[in-house]
Design brief:
By secondary structure, the protein is of the alpha/beta class. The chain has 2 domains: about 1-200, Rossmann fold (3-Layer(aba) Sandwich); about 205-325, Rossmann fold (3-Layer(aba) Sandwich). The chain has helices at about 30-35, 60-70, 90-100, 125-135, 220-225, 250-260, 285-290, 300-310, 315-325; strands at about 1-10, 15, 25, 45-55, 80-85, 100, 105-110, 140-145, 150, 155-160, 165-170, 175-180, 180-185, 200, 205-210, 230-235, 265-270, 290-295. Strands 4-1-5-7-8-9-12-13 form an 8-stranded mixed sheet, sandwiched between helices. A hairpin with a 3-residue loop joins strand 12 (about 175-180) and strand 13 (about 180-185).
């Protein structure tokens, strides 16, 4: 009999109306699930309430706590389900994919758009589907299950707050489709290198997101860089990585980052975009200032991966090399990484 660990962290899934009618974290979910879900599976289900938070309150230390809980009980269970709020689920999924090294078991995040005990709730269906994936699928990676579709966790984005089909993976196709039967697309699965499972939760959260838009005033953020208040930058550029290359403020911004040895990763504002820093005029400055292409990574994965890189390395070349590597299937391969 397989053993599945369900780790509860909060979110809409377990919320209930407070005295003012506003949704707030509730405490009834565990008992309800224990009575309802186990009879559906030939499995032993263990539940743990790690914390009970609206996911908008999550910080990197919550990602670390989830990873440590999985690590401490890794040998005791065949699969893990993490019940999580939808707003920051993609960030947590990305973090876990980088923290959990040589993963050989499924780790499936899920949640809901409507709380468990409210009418037309999607909570129980999502949980049952996630448990089924953790129990019966062949994946050995961090995934997000929502509305009967399973995505690679670090490729996932939330696309809507008003539909049950809340998540999508713009640059990577689903891993599993749950219809009448479970359809697994094995050729899309990520396979970790052979080795002993371990975690590495080192990170530095001092990363700043810089979304480019027409008229953006780079002088507003240059002092932040020069004063050492950020250790990493993610520039969210247009399309394939284009930026206003004739703007003198941009040149000053890149120079300030280079002078302070602050790594700059460039991702695309287009959900299905792929960054190519050699395509536009910015290419002439990309190599000079050491800009890092996020290729087709999501904004969420790029931010979290840069946090992890900063936590593991102090040398700028090693940070760039780490960002270029495909660690957990988060990006399209682009050839060998630059040697540190």
């Amino acid at each position: 009999m397989k053993r599945i660990s369900i780790i509860h962290t909060g979110g809409t899934f377990s919320m209930q109306p407070d005295d003012e009618g506003l949704l707030a974290p509730g405490n009834y979910a565990l008992d309800y699930i224990q009575k309802t879900v186990p009879p559906l599976f030939n499995a032993e289900l263990r539940q743990k309430q790690l914390f009970n938070l609206d996911s908008s309150l999550f910080r990197p230390e919550h990602w670390v706590a989830i990873a440590r809980e999985i690590c401490e009980t890794y040998d005791d269970y065949d699969g893990f389900v993490v019940v999580h709020g939808t707003d920051t689920m993609a960030y947590t999924a990305s973090a876990l994919s980088f923290f959990l090294k040589n993963l050989e078991k499924p780790v499936v995040l899920t949640g809901s758009q409507i709380p468990l005990t409210m009418k037309r709730s999607d909570a129980l269906g999502n949980l049952i589907a996630a448990v089924e994936v953790a129990h019966s699928s062949d994946i050995k990676e961090v995934a997000v299950q929502f509305n009967n579709t399973v995505f690679r966790g670090n490729r996932t984005k939330k696309k809507t707050a008003s539909d049950f089909d809340a998540f999508y993976s713009p640059n990577y196709r689903p891993l599993i489709q749950l219809g009448i039967v479970m359809e697994q697309f094995h050729n899309r699965f990520f396979h970790s290198p052979a080795g002993v499972f371990e975690i590495d939760t080192r990170l530095d959260p001092h990363v700043l997101l810089v979304p480019i838009f027409p008229g953006f005033d780079f002088s507003t953020i240059i002092p932040t860089v020069q004063e050492g208040r950020t250790k990493g930058l993610v520039v969210e550029a247009y399309g394939s990585g284009n930026v206003p290359s004739d703007d003198p403020g941009l040149e000053e911004f890149f120079k300030a980052a280079a002078d302070m040895k602050v790594p700059v990763a460039v991702c695309s504002q287009s959900p299905m975009g792929k960054v190519n820093l050699k395509l536009y005029k910015v290419a002439s400055r990309a190599d000079y200032y050491g800009l890092i292409s996020a290729v087709d990574m999501t904004r969420e994965a790029t931010i979290v991966k840069l946090m992890v890189a900063l936590g593991r390395f102090s040398d700028l070349k090693k940070i760039k090399q780490f960002m270029q590597l495909n660690i957990a299937g988060e990006k399209e391969d682009e050839g060998p990484a630059e040697r540190a």
